[in-house]
């Protein structure tokens, strides 16, 4: 069964860092663009970053530029999101997605608070 499983979320203080992981299984991971999204309470789910199949063309929304880094390891079928200088407004459930297959993971909670 094809699935995406996120991990790495947690509670971090403002200015801190986290690395999220998304493990893909049950389908060929390497050929597909992948993306990270997030959803804060009371808000719509929004795109954070995406990356092409080769991993050499990342794209970020404005608030993620310079702070977040998306990457992938096609040998391990894992997508990553490194988040630095976290702010309280980054608090959200973070999801990975395979747009071509319309697949979502279950999400991992990130809470930024002192």
Folded structure, characterized:
It is a single chain. By secondary structure, this protein is mainly β. It contains no helices and eleven strands. The chain has strands at 3-7, 10-12, 18-25, 34-39, 46-51, 58-60, 68-73, 78-83, 92-98, 103-104, 108-112. Strands 2, 4, 5, 6, 9, 10 and 11 form a seven-stranded mixed β-sheet that branches. Strands 1-3-8-7 form a four-stranded antiparallel β-sheet, with no helix packed on it. Strand 9 and strand 10 (103-104) form a beta hairpin. The radius of gyration is 13 Å and the shape is globular. It starts with a strand and ends with a strand. The model has no long low-confidence stretch (mean pLDDT 96).
Fold topology:
Blueprint: E1 3-7, E2 10-12, E3 18-25, E4 34-39, E5 46-51, E6 58-60, E7 68-73, E8 78-83, E9 92-98, E10 103-104, E11 108-112
Parallel strand pairs: 2-11
Antiparallel strand pairs: 1-3, 3-8, 4-5, 4-9, 5-6, 7-8, 9-10, 9-11
């Amino acid at each position: 069964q094809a699935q995406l499983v996120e991990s790495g979320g947690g509670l971090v203080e403002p200015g801190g860092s986290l690395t999220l992981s998304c493990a893909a299984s049950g389908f060929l991971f390497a050929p597909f663009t992948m993306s990270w999204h997030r959803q804060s309470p009371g808000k719509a789910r929004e795109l954070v970053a995406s990356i092409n199949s080769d991993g050499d063309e990342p794209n970020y929304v404005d608030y993620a530029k310079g702070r977040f880094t998306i990457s992938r390891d096609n040998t391990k079928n894992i997508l990553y999101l490194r988040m630095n200088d976290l702010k309280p407004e980054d608090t959200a459930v973070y999801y990975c997605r395979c747009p071509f297959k319309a697949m979502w993971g279950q999400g991992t909670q990130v809470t930024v608070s002192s």
